[in-house]
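User: Predict the complex.
Assistant: Input components as received:
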Amino acid sequence: MVSSRGQTVGSWLEPAEVITPLWLSLKVALWATVISSVAGVILGLYLARSRNRLRNLLDTLCTLPMVLPPTVLGYYLLVVFGSQSSVGGWLKQSLGVTLIFSLEGAIVAASIVSFPLIFKPARAAFETVDPRLEQAGRVLGVSELGIVLRISLPLAWRGIMAGVMLGFVRALGEFGATLMVAGSIPGKTQTLSIAIYEAVQAGRDGAANVMALVISVVCIVFLLIATRLTPRRHAVRGDAI
Amino acid sequence: MSESGHTHPWCDLYVRKTLVSAQRRFELDVRLRSDAPRIVLMGPSGAGKTRLLQAIAGLLRPDEGHIRIGGRTFFDSKSGLHLPPQQRRVGYLFQDYALFPHLSVLANVAFGLRQGVWGRLSHEQKEEAMHWLERFEITHLAQQRPHTLSGGQQQRVALARMAILKPRVLLLDEPFSALDPALRISMRHQIDKLLNLLGIPLLMVSHDEHDRQAFGAQVVHLIMSD
C-alpha cells in the first residue's frame, strides 16, 4: 500500500489538499455511477421481466457487494484483476489498462459497490410498470426497444434516479475496496475518504475536519434529492413528467 | 404466408392452450370458423374469452392450432409460425383501455404512428392524430393526461389510438361494461361507424344481449366443461 504521510505536520491546510482529493472523488464517483447505471438499468429491466427460475440467485449475487466487507471485495478484485491473474494480464496486454494502483481501479471498485444500490431500485421501478401498457405498445406495432424507451423507462425513471443518487453517494464515500485495489497515491488515487483517513493518521485534524465537512454536505444534498425522487405510494403511476 | 381471403372465412381459429395459475389448471380449446362480419363471444367468466383475444393479438402463444384472420396466418403450430404482435395489425381494445399515463391524449393517439425511437412527431403525423381526435370528438382533450378523463373519454382515446393504424380486425374485450347505459348506446354507434369506415370485421367479448342486437352479430358461446 502506498501511503502519503503529509510533509506538513501542522493543522493548517492548503486548499489543494482538499480540492485535489475532492476532484478525484467526484471523478471516480461520476464514472462509477455512469457505469453502474447503464448496467444496473439493464439488469433491473431483465430481472423485472424475467421468468427464469435463477433470477433470484442472480439478484442475490449482484447484491453481495452491499453486504460483503469492502476488504473482501477489494481482495477479490486484486485476485481477479491483479497482474498475476489472466484477466489482469489480458487487460494490460490488449487494452493497456492496469487496475491495480490506478484511477481505473478506483472506478471499478466504486462501480461494484454502488451497483446493488442502483439495480435494486431499478428492478422495483420496472416492476411497478403495468405490463398491459407494454403489451398495448406491442399491439400498436412498437418495437421492443421502443417499448423500453417510450413506455417502461419514462414510467420508471423516478425510482431509477433515486437509486442512481444513492449509488453516487455510495461511490463517493467508497473507502475499503478502493484502498485495497488502488492504494492511496496523492493526486492519483487518493480520494477524499482516503485522504481523511491519512490526515487523521498524520494527526492533521484541521484538514480532516474540513474534508469530513465537505463530504458530509455533498452526501446530504444527494440524499435529499434521492428522497424527493423516491416514488411515493400514491404517485407510482401517472406522475412521470 | 398470406393466402387469398376469398376461399377462407375471415375468421378461422383453432386454439388449444393449457393455462396453469395458482388457483386452477385450465384448458382453452376453441374452434371457430366464421364469415359473419360481427361476432360476439359470450360465456361465463373464466371461460377464456379474454385469453382467446390475447392469442389473436399475439400476446399469448397457443400450444397447438392455428389462427388465420382475413386470410393471413398469424399462428400455426404445424409450421411453427408465430407472428409477433407488432406484425399482426389488430386493433385490440384492452378491458381497462391501457392508455399511457405519462403521455397526453394526442401523444397516446399518435403513439403507434411514430415508429422511430427518438425524435418528435412529424407534421403529417400530428395532423393525422388530430383528424382522429376530431372524429371521436375529443379534440378539446388533446393536451390532457388520461387520468383526468372520464371512462367514456378514455375509451374514445383508446379507439382512436388503434383506429389510426388502420387495423385488419377490431378485437373488443367487454368494451361497455364500465359505461352507463346512455353512453353504451352512443359508443355502440361510434364503433359501428368505425367498422363501416375501415371496412373491417369485429370480434367482441360481451355479457350483454344488447350488444348482439346492436351489432346484428353472430354469437359464439364458450362453455365450461370439466
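The first helix of chain B runs from residue 49 to 57.
Let me know if you want any component modeled separately.
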